Amino acid sequence: MLDKMRYFIMRALRNMRQWPFLCAASVLTMAVALTMVATFFLVVVNVEQLTQRWSKDLQVVVYLDRAPAPSALTQMVSSIREMAEVAQVIHVTPAEAMAQFRQRLGENAALLQGVDNDILPGSLEIALHAQYQQRDGMDQLLARLKTVAAGHDIHYGQDWLERFESFVSVLRLTGLALGGFLLFAALFIVSNTIRLTFYARRDELEIMALVGATERFIKTPFLLEGALQGLFGGLLALLALTLIFKGILVEIVHSLWVTPAAFSLLFLNGHQQLILVFGGVLLGVFGSLTSLKKLIQI
Amino acid sequence: MLDKMRYFIMRALRNMRQWPFLCAASVLTMAVALTMVATFFLVVVNVEQLTQRWSKDLQVVVYLDRAPAPSALTQMVSSIREMAEVAQVIHVTPAEAMAQFRQRLGENAALLQGVDNDILPGSLEIALHAQYQQRDGMDQLLARLKTVAAGHDIHYGQDWLERFESFVSVLRLTGLALGGFLLFAALFIVSNTIRLTFYARRDELEIMALVGATERFIKTPFLLEGALQGLFGGLLALLALTLIFKGILVEIVHSLWVTPAAFSLLFLNGHQQLILVFGGVLLGVFGSLTSLKKLIQI
Amino acid sequence: MIQLFNVTKSYRKDSVALKDLSLEIGKGEFVYVAGASGAGKTTLLRMLYAAEKPSRGQILIDGQNITRIGRQKIPYLRRKIGVVFQDYKLLNSRSVYENVAFALEAQGKKRYEVSKKVYQALKEVGLEHRLNRTPLELSGGEQQRIAIARALVVDPLILLADEPSGNLDQAVATEIMGLFRRANARGTTVVLATHDPGLYKRFPRRLISLDGGQVVSDYRPDTV
Amino acid sequence: MIQLFNVTKSYRKDSVALKDLSLEIGKGEFVYVAGASGAGKTTLLRMLYAAEKPSRGQILIDGQNITRIGRQKIPYLRRKIGVVFQDYKLLNSRSVYENVAFALEAQGKKRYEVSKKVYQALKEVGLEHRLNRTPLELSGGEQQRIAIARALVVDPLILLADEPSGNLDQAVATEIMGLFRRANARGTTVVLATHDPGLYKRFPRRLISLDGGQVVSDYRPDTV
Ligand SMILES: Nc1ncnc2c1ncn2[C@@H]1O[C@H](COP(=O)(O)OP(=O)(O)OP(=O)(O)O)[C@@H](O)[C@H]1O
Ligand SMILES: Nc1ncnc2c1ncn2[C@@H]1O[C@H](COP(=O)(O)OP(=O)(O)OP(=O)(O)O)[C@@H](O)[C@H]1O
Ligand SMILES: [Mg+2]
Ligand SMILES: [Mg+2]
């Protein structure tokens, strides 16, 4: 068994040495396809990370247009606190609101000089538990808030969130479609390359069958070859991905945000890197298999 | 001559019919590569369009902290107008500034009620000629402005512009690198596929040479075949690109901006579409050529 | 060893390559199959190593009905049979050594065993000094002898040789016939297709003559 | 027509296929090149159609020194020469018709001319009914005859035939020899490599015998 395995591996290696350009074609094709799929995966993962980060900031604000009586306010706050979705309620007084506003204006804050501190309404900033930070079910919460804080303005980043969510879903769909297409294309090209290889060696396959080789004996080295090429392809893809990540993605993000330190991009974790390389092996084996199926019928 | 051409075309077509899967492999590889390059081109073109649009809004603002005397103001405005870079100078009075500020606050405008109309400083909004809307040379202009409008605050979107410009340059570089890599990969794969095809038909090439066919006679149908496959690949890429554009890019932009009508995405113009298809033909011919070079030496 | 019952083979509707052929070849026999070009000699041999299925009729090899066996069993049938193909079927990208070793490796033989046997087989056909060449670097007759070495190296139960001396001069052909006869003496059943009357005149054995896919004579010389 | 001056050919350093060969074959001659397997017959022919360059010496074909001509001129040399290759060199993926037509198309002949000539050539070798088959659907002898038809269809100035009857029975071989003799009568110079003594005994012509790459005899029968 071991002896046979060594024989198979030797034959696979010899074939690869004998047809270096065929081998390179398969490896490169797989590497390109895997790199593209993985790059897209990285982009989607990082955009999703961003969404989650932004979702954390999602909160509902009740503007207290007419300052309520302190007792009414306390009761309102405590009944809001009791709601399951609510993590925290912070009361922002008009003075605090003004301070925040001033901060937000930054350089232009000077133009607020002389403005009455009471001019801005107070508000209740309601932070939600993580699992409720999404649009589904938000309507219910809003309805309940409306009864509790009747007469006051209730705001939350609905518009912005809706837009961003639809963006992410389009991105995910694109990723799925494009990734699927690329993988399919890679499989097609790899399988064709290997089929061509077989075609170029059809006499070898025929003669093997004629001198009494079993199908398994004929096929195994080719499958091994496919697996090896896939392994190389996967490793090459990992290398290319690292370069693309370090050289391009990180650069783009740095050039867009001033403080990239706050937002560190995710790379594939060890597990995912393994999946990438293993995906190459699978691609190679599957490509060989589909080509082998039709070829041996002597 | 015409008779010969017909013979060559017939042979090329027959070959393609005889080896449909080889033909499909080449066509698909080229289509995938071209589609990717073109997609990237579209993204870069559209981002650049966006940059230009944004650059149009680039203007220098001089905040008139202490309202100058009308005569001083008129003189300041006219001397600024004389500068070569300046297209237009608009004087915004404190009342107008307040109105704009109110508009920008939108829903929160109510909180400006009771605020004095004179509280905001007046300003001079200086629009620049298109060719000066960039960071280079801006320092000079600023220095000159500083002497003219001494004592007033001068602002312009430097930070933002710098960041965005570096983003665009990274994107362009990425596009160049990735596009180059993809084209190279496509050329490699196509040339390999065709080389494999030749290898599978090496007996044919050998026998042709042995019965007295000239090199040109042997090569021409293969070059034609490459060109035809490239043509199909290019057309397929154009189709795929249209689908990607309509189905994905436009969707993404729609989901990100509320008013996409104002910003219509660019697709390839007729000229560029021709270049894409012709690029396919070139790819096919070049792929064939590189493979043919080594093969015929009998 | 080999039995054919009413075997008919037609590759196409309109033409018949073998017509209602019945034949029995015993264990250890040495048989010539003669006939003009296109008589059906190669077709007959191809059916014996299951490269072709008969359109009608049954074929028994070593008691096994090979018209009924599954695809997976064919390799095991072929291991009993050494074949010298009319067009040699050598691998041009492999060395002479590898070409011959191939047949043994395909049957799962051990490495040390392979190298010993290959060398011996090449020596018997007089080409042990061509070990490292590829078939394309050999003359036509040398290629034919490599094909013969490959068929003999596996010590087959049955040897099928299709025109094995077509590219050999008389001296070498005589040597090769000696090899076949020695294999025959060791118990191998030999079936030799040829159109060369000189061959069976010099080494008279049972002679089955085909014409148009039918047996026209089956002659056994008294001397054997 | 064909002149060789001190031609030596060694494929490898250690072995010589042809040794200091000088030879002259006149226009319209019919010559056998005989010799054992590996004597150098194929090597000699290969050099005549410029598939191989001599290691030393000069070769003149029709007054042209082919050891000196450029790669681009070789096709035009080959158009004067019809070759029957020892291993046929047929295209297995093309029909019989296409295989023969190939030689004419490669020389840029017109379509109507091609079809007429191909049909006639196939008829002469007795295979006009195999027009649409591929070579793999033919017997060994039939393939050989297609190769012969392809060599003759171009009406060559010189015909080089390498073992053209190796897979043919005597009746067909006689017919083929008739074709060669007719071509010879029309003015074609014929060089026929063979190891079959029967052939030149039945059709005696000038006989050049090779052994180990050297001419060991050059015999002209009185009758011709
Ligand atoms: N694969 C095939 N498809 C169709 N017809 C075939 C095929 N193989 C052989 N034939 C036909 O069957 C007949 C017998 O062929 P076969 O090869 O058995 O002849 P043979 O006796 O070996 O002849 P030769 O001495 O020329 O090799 C021939 O007429 C041939 O054309
Ligand atoms: N491409 C090659 N490389 C190395 N050696 C070769 C090559 N071709 C032929 N030879 C050697 O040259 C010698 C002469 O070969 P050639 O093919 O001319 O013989 P031949 O007379 O045609 O024999 P046959 O009757 O067997 O065809 C042989 O020993 C052969 O091994
Ligand atoms: Mg036969
Ligand atoms: Mg020879």
What's the number of helices of chain C?
Answer: 7
Low-confidence stretches of chain A: 258-262
Q: Report, as a whole number of angstroms, the end-to-end distance of chain A.
A: 26 Å
Largest sheet of chain A: 4 strands, antiparallel
- Globally, the shape of chain A reads elongated
Radius of gyration of chain A: 31 Å
Number of strand segments of chain C: 10
Biggest sheet of chain C: strands side by side, in what order? Answer: 6-7-8-3-9-10
What percent strand of chain C? 25-35%
What proportion of the residues of chain C is helical, as a percent range? Answer: 25-40%
Number of helices of chain A: 9
Helicity of chain A, in percent? over 70%
Task: Summarize the structure in words.
The complex is a heterotetramer, with two copies of chain A (298 residues) and two copies of chain C (224 residues). With 298 residues, chain A is α+β, with helices and mostly antiparallel strands. Chain A folds into two domains: 2-54 and 161-295, no CATH class; 59-156, Alpha-Beta Plaits (2-Layer Sandwich), CATH 3.30.70.3040. In chain A, 70% of the residues lie in helices and 8% in strands. Chain A contains nine helices and four strands; from the N terminus they run ααβαβαβαβαααα. Chain A has helices at residues 2-18, 20-56, 70-81, 94-105, 138-148, 158-200, 202-210, 215-256, 270-295; strands spanning 59-64, 86-92, 122-128, 153-156. A four-stranded antiparallel β-sheet of chain A has the order 2-3-1-4. The longest helix of chain A is centred in the middle third of the chain and has 43 residues, at 158-200. Mean pLDDT of chain A is 77; it is low at 258-262. Chain C is of the alpha/beta class and 224 residues long. Chain C is 33% helix and 25% strand. Chain C has seven helices and ten strands. In chain C, the strands form two sheets. In chain C, strands 6-7-8-3-9-10 form a six-stranded mixed β-sheet, sandwiched between helices. Chain C has a four-stranded antiparallel β-sheet with strand order 2-1-4-5, covered by helices on one side. In chain C, helix 4 (111-124) packs across helix 5. The two termini of chain C are 19 Å apart. The model of chain C has no long low-confidence stretch (mean pLDDT 92). The chains are: A alpha+beta (298), C alpha/beta (224). Chains in contact: A-B, A-C, B-D, C-D. At the A-C interface, helix 1 and helix 7 of A face helix 2 and helix 3 of C. One adenosine-5'-triphosphate sits between chains C (11-12, 17, 35, 37-43, 86, 195) and D (136-142, 167).
